[in-house]
Queue: 2 jobs
Job 1
Amino acid sequence: MSQTQSLLIVDDDERFAETLALEFTERDWRVDCVSDLDELRALPPFAHRFASVDLRLRHQSGLDAIPLILERSPRARIVVLTGYGSIATAVQAVKQGAFNYLTKPVQVEDLLAAFRGEALQSQPGVATAATGQTLARREREYIEWVLAECGGNISRAARQLGLHRQSLQRKLRKFTPRV
Amino acid sequence: MRIRLFALLDPPLSQLGDSNAAKLAWVVRLRWIALCAQGLSILPALRFGLLERPRVPLFLGVVAALALLNALTWARLRRESDVSQPELGAQLFADIAALSALLGLSGGAWNPLVPLLFFHAGLGALLLEGRVSLGFFWSLVACLAFVQAFGHVPPGLVETRVSPAVLFPAQFLVAGVFWLFTTWLSHTLAALQAHVHARRQEQGRIDRLRAVGALAAGLSHEFATPLNTAMLKLERLARKLDLAGDPALEEMSEALGRCEDVLRQMAGSQLRPDALRLEVEDVGDLVEKVCAGLRSEDPSVPLRFRRERGAALVQVPAVAFTQAVLNLVDNALEESSPEAPVDVEVRSTPERVSVEIRDRGPGWPELVRTHLGEPFVTTRPGGVGLGLYFAYTLAETIGGTLELDSVEGGGAIARLVLPVARSAGAETRA
């Protein structure tokens, strides 16, 4: 990544946002932080290349930040961060246009890899889970692989999310890392 | 005042099903009312010629005897509250015997109050069970026959006679219908009560598990971000001060890693409230998928899966259950030597499905066995001690158990025993 990269951090924990921002500014990235949706709307226009969004923003949902970001920067790769994930929220995030999905705590390298569309062994995310290629031992992801492999459960999840089965599978496939 | 009187007479619904003492206490209260009514009925009985004046002392004598019995019963209940079904039956028999005597003294089968005996048929069917109830019914028939055969009919009443050939069988029939109907009703009510009770217990267990899940979710969310901050800062510190390899920093890093492990295991419990919907699943399929998944991850894993033919349908939250089985199999694989086989077997009987995971390791440590069902109990260095806890809690929630056995000659068995789905026909998998 030779040219200057840009990152938008949406996180209600300001200490964490600053810590993360510091790591990226030291790598010569342009970084902006907002802690809720209102701040995000008030941000001067700039098309960020990448964004990291916490799924839980005090009284708001990080999911709602995704369309706002895509409106500003249609080509942004958004990685959703959460302390507590599930296949349903991951699918919802991707449905909204997120690019990848990680569970906290994350290392800077995890985030970089997720932005690149890779999945690390330490943080396989749903990306590998959906394909079943590299089955990481991380147990939650493993379960989600089981779910993804189980046709009955997929259609059930689809019903729950109001999606047609095929479209859900397409969404899940979108998680597939571009190696 | 009126409300209090009704409250006094309300049947003890919550105990009617199981406590004879509560039933008898109710009978005693009802009987005081009946005794008042019997005493007062003398006046109209005299007025309408049902009762002749010379028989009044005998009539009052029967009422007084029943009142004495009731007082004794009342005192006995206060002293001791252990009542058997035959005793309750005898008490109800005393009532119909007294009532029959009173009817016999005042018009026999032609007394318009004979249907009161039918009420007793219903009461007996409601409060008595099995052979006692049947015995009570036959004694009621005998009482009715006595009233019909030996009832003293005052001369004034003869004119209004219905033919005994019509009236007598009709009375038996009505008594029988009352008894049968109430028996059926009380069985239905008991079944309903049992069903409601079971449902409430089930719901209570699921709610408890939901609470655990919500707490785990909240904790892991609240801790994940600050922990992440600490990890990033620590790493930065080590880099800036060139302290890579410093023992203190290493230890801090390990301590944070330990927190991360706990968080991940809590988040991985799959006990989130939204994931706890019970659905009928073939447990054999789920367990087979776990094994297949582990094998595809590492083909050399010494895992042997066996299942009996036929469906093993259980009502489970699929994801949480799969996670629990995975934890148990992981446990077993870690405990045994790399080449020693781990056997996973799914068996089912008409009532139960069992999932057995057996390793050739050292067996369960005593600590783990005695504290089964408590969180954070582990003897393994670096272990978190939530895997068994979640499996145990999940099994309890769906009405099953988690059993830990040690095999002679080495090896541990973890056995999930789960109830077969009640409506196995109502399979919900698409």
Job 2
Amino acid sequence: MKLFEYQAKDVFRENNIKIPQSYLIDSVESLEDGLKEIGVPCALKSQVLRGGRGKAGLIPLVKTNEEARSEVARLLASEHNVSKILVEEMISIEKELYLSITVDAKKATALVIACVEGGVDIETLAVDSPEKIMFEEVDIIAGIQPFQCKNIAYGLSKDKNIVSQLSKMIYNLYQVFDKYDAELVEINPVFITTEGNVIAGDGKLSIDDNSMYRQKKYEMTREYFDSDMEFEAALEGIPYIQFDGDISLMCAGAGLTTTVYDLINYADGSVANYLEFGGPNYRKAEEAMRLCLKNDSKVILIVTFGTIARADVMADGIVAAIKKLQPDRPIITCIRGTNEIEATKTLKAAGLECLYDTEDAVKRAVEISKASTSSNGGAR
Amino acid sequence: MSIFIQKETKVLIQGITGSEGSFWTKHMIEMGTTVVAGVTPGKAGQMVEGVQVYNSVRDAVKEHDVDATMLFVPPKFTKDAVLEALDAGIKKIVTVADGIPLHETVEIRKKALEAGALVIGGNTSGVITPGEAMMGFFPYWIERVYKPGRIGVMTRSGSLTNEVTAMIVEAGYGVSTLIGIGGDPVPGTRFAEMLPYYEADPDTDAVVIIGELGGTMEEEVAEAMEAGIFTKPVVSFLGGRTAPKGKRMGHAGAIISGGKGSVEGKIEALEKAGGLVADRPSKVGLLLQQLLNS
């Protein structure tokens, strides 16, 4: 789960990492309190999870109250799904740095990444000038040691006062990484102010989904998702991505679903939604089909090849879902794996089109999606 | 021969009395796996499928020789179960749990590396040597998928593995040993770390790698090929060629970051090292024929 900047900064503050003064607003009315608290000039930072907010015009700097009001109105009405804005004091910046902590999968360590250039795209920098990036491997069992914090801090600055503040920031950031089961915690940029203070200019905190059971502080709400459908699917625990094509996918397994997605693109078809109907969700045919039917797709393509996710159970679920939901578009099935013979019998008895080869099934779905705009029962 | 597990490999099962544990123990035995003992805390003295249950791994290894252990343990308790097995000196561990906390997967791998042990998984179906034995859950009874043969298979995926393996069989081949490395961002063992075993196995002629976008495991395979650590033919299939950037498609490990981890980068590395990369599952068999008949 990716947190918003304001949430990451709350966590930073609680863990003694300095952040700029700020005030969170959600309307033009609440802006007035924000302006009283922070004053102008200030930065209006849209709280959205996408990257590149600055370039997209989602972080305007304003000099007057009038300007602030019109910008807030613009942001809240924009198509970028902005519901909260962080009104933040302007900081006079001497220098910007980069700092993050993630895991190194190969070495099996935590990894602190730092750079004397901040506010940049670190992945681009890693390709263009890797020599500018510093790494410090941290034993995830022992945790970060003070000398390691100093190693990085000395690499970032020669100033004694700054080094001392940076060391503390790195130490505290590691505590956040540890406490919050983070897959990534990032401050980009770290501000070194003209007064010689070290402050977190931005904040990213991404919590590992597998650890959410012990990170109960954050509830899943609509604002974390790009669309209503993705939110609805997440509440069901079904992996789902919204696209705008013609074929709804209802496939089992991340690898197979991704492969079917590729095969459709190769065949010049288009995907309406990516949906994983497998693993723990193989008994959720009805929920999965309901999501697919909410799309403007022309056909639903079901491809599975399961072991624990038994084919016969999935087939029973699909037939029951069809009875209940009365789908208005054709459904192509390609269901294999444990008890596949029983599954085929069930599907055929219900009048469904059964294929056994993934590529044949994809071809058929693409054909149907292109054939006609009217769908009156189709393969049913 | 084959690698990691054979008929005579003595297997312990942790979490044997659970519904999943007992169900798959039955299948493992039916397939021919030598299951010597089971562990579930507090259930000592019980029998599951004719297998004696102990309270702890320490108790079980006092009474039995154990070569490998299979964990049917929920993700929350997996780290502890792995550490328990390592503590008892077991060097081959398979964990199928889907949902192990990320930081704990890092700890598991670190401890395994320190102990010189192989932990396979989590988030996998396990390991199978068709016709001999398995640790995990595979539909081994489906002949068109799990036919014994001379092709090694390594994979990050579950159902896609059934799909691709069926294509290997359709092309006239079979599988020596299939290792499910698993879909977690930090698997206990990485593709390249299994290559020396396949290299040394006289019964493996070539290896098929079923990869995915994200991470650097496929690039490491290319490095091992370039370095001459692995000299047998390699055919890969990689899902996610057309995946849009920035969307989390596929497994949690499958996030593209910068140039690294992209499918294009992986294909380039593998081809440069002399491997062939299939753009769809049905091509895997053809590419194998091309390499093995040349």
